Structures are given as C-alpha cells and as structure tokens.
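Running low. Got one?
___
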Amino acid sequence: MSNSQAAISFSDNHSKSDPRTQFAALCYRRSGDRKTEVLLVTGRRTGRWKLPKGWPTAGLTPAETAMKEAYEEAGVRGTRHEECVGHFVYDKTLNGKATLPCIVAVFPIKVSSLAKKFPETGERKFMWLTPKKAAKKVEEPSLKSILKQFDPSNLRN
C-alpha cells in the first residue's frame, strides 16, 4: 500500500464523531538469536501498551510522521519503510470523557539505536517483545492481527 493510500482522507469540516487519521511506528529489531522483536510503549495517561503514534504533521509523509513519533516517544533511530503494513481503529479519549474515533496507518521502522534523551524521556515505559507476545499486550483487535502477522522479511523496501 502506498503512502497516498495510507492516509484516509476526510472532509476538512470534521464533526466530533468523524474518524481522524493517525500514523504509528511498528519499530522492530533482530535480537541476538535472530528473532524479530517489536517495541511497545505505554500511553502517558492510560498506561496501556501501544505503538508510538501521532497526528499527521504538515510537510511530512505518513512514514516520516511515524518515524518522528517513534523518536519523540521512545528515542528510536533507524530506517523507516514507506510501505503501510496495515490499519487499526481505536477510540481516543479526550479530556477524560469524550472519545474520538481514530484510524491508524502502521509503518515499520528498523531500529538501529535508541537515544538516551528524547522529547518524552521518563514519560513512558517501553519493552521489546516478539510480535506474537506484543499482540497479547495490546487491546485493539486489528493491531493484534498486524503484530501476529508481522515479518520484516516480507517488507518491500
């Protein structure tokens, strides 16, 4: 799926119930025994395990936005893939009450290193898990499926 297909477009005149688009980073590495591991971070308010993600950024492609979020939330440095590997949906809680439906496009990032200091240092926990174990930690069914099926050897770029 191309970047242009990854961003689901909606009218500029959003109602409070219109879905919004976000971009997530599926950060991965190979462990010492060559197993693939993926990075999960906690949400700042909820403490739930999730992928680094955020709102579209003017001037950046969806994959570049995912890379920016991975750095801000977990200090990730690496190589982004332009290929979207899937979408998931969730309801973002606003101000502790209202929810906003979000559609999230997921972009892989091959991690080369983690910065010791980054914009959200100390605000989140993170852990490395196999994709199947990570799928058990997240709540969204579509994200569980993306994680279970993730295999970096299937990526095109």
